[in-house]
Amino acid sequence: MQTIEKTAKTVQDAVDQALYELGIERENAEIEILEEPSKKLFGILGAKPARVKVSIKNTTGLRAKDLLGNVLRAMDVEAEVNIQEEEGNVHINLEGSDLGVLIGRRGETLDALQYLVSLSVNKNQEQRKKIFLDVEGYRRRREETLQKLAMKLADKARQRGRNVVLEPMNSLERRIIHTALQGRDDIATFSEGEEPYRKIIIAPKKY
Fold first, then answer.
1. Angle of helix 138-160 relative to helix 171-181, nearest 10 degrees?
2. What one-character DSSP code corresponds to residue 28?
3. What is the pLDDT of residue 207?
4. Are residues 127 and 147 in the same domain?
5. Where is the region Jag_N domain (predicted)?
6. Which pLDDT belongs to residue 53?
């Protein structure tokens, strides 16, 4: 755990200086006041500054940020790592230019990176957190694309009266397809095959 000590005229000034040097927000810090400031006594004895010790909390989000920083440097990729940590979940979004290499074909690299981060930051932890990794909002755009594709292929299956077989998808993308079509009463969806080649079948209902 990275820790520094700072002195200043006031406790707040010392804490602010420490937070700035560590590059963290107050909610990600553990703060210990070592000495309160004191004023001059009878104008003779000198005043004592405030002294604080500030440490970076060892949170899941910060461990993920540190790991991703190392991965990005190894790949020679520049990206800003934004973390939103909540109870049970850690949402990470990478922002920058030319980050397609982090997404890969249909998000395969992004999924692998998310798995790596989740495995690493949850190792030996009593409380595991779900990691959601995204790059420039890719997952939202991909979800919208899959929802539109689902509707289009469902219409095709109904109009032609025969099954439509989609290309293999991961479990998350298959769930998006199933969810997008679950409200329709003219078609049914089911999955078949073994991972990683498991695929969705869209079948028209026969009345």
1. 50
2. G
3. 67
4. no
5. 5-55
6. 92
